Amino acid sequence: MNKFTCFFCLLILLIPLSGYSDVEESDIGFWKTEDCKKVSEAAEFFLYTSGEVLKTADKERIAGNEEESEKSYAAALFYSELSENAAKNFEAFCKK
């Protein structure tokens, strides 16, 4: 019974330590905070780029360059999809 008591006391003392971890409070999910920040910045960059390419496509359409306008619209859609994918990854791996 004496061994059981010592083990029980040791267990009681170690329980508070089990809740301690090296994870910072700023870590917000499965991935490290710095990785999540990079994914978020990528989503922002791709969305911004999509908007800028869309402006170019509109200018080309107004100027009568239909072929170039269509290429720019396709590029804007591509960047928009990249942004969406990065945002989905952020939501899946960076949110609790």
Model description:
This protein has a domain of 67 residues. Helices cover 79% and strands 0% of the residues. The protein is built from three helices and no strands. Helix 2 runs antiparallel to helix 3. The longest helix is centred in the middle third of the chain and has 30 residues. The relative contact order is 0.14.
What portion of the residues fall into strands of 2 or more residues?
Answer: under 5%
What is the string of SSEs from the N terminus onward? HHH
* Number of helical elements: 3
Q: What is the mean pLDDT?
A: 79
Low-confidence stretches: 1-21
Largest sheet: number of strands, sense, barrel closure: none
Quick one: how many beta strands? 0
- The global form is rod-shaped
Q: What's the Cα radius of gyration?
A: 26 Å
State the end-to-end distance: 44 Å
Helix content: over 70%
Structural class: mainly alpha
Oligomer: single chain
Summarize the structure.
The chain has 96 residues and is mainly α. The protein has helices at 2-18, 33-62, 66-94.
Task: Outline the secondary-structure elements.
Layout: H1 2-18, H2 33-62, H3 66-94
Helix pairs in contact: 2-3
Give keywords.
96 residues; mainly alpha; 3 helices; 79% helix; disordered N terminus
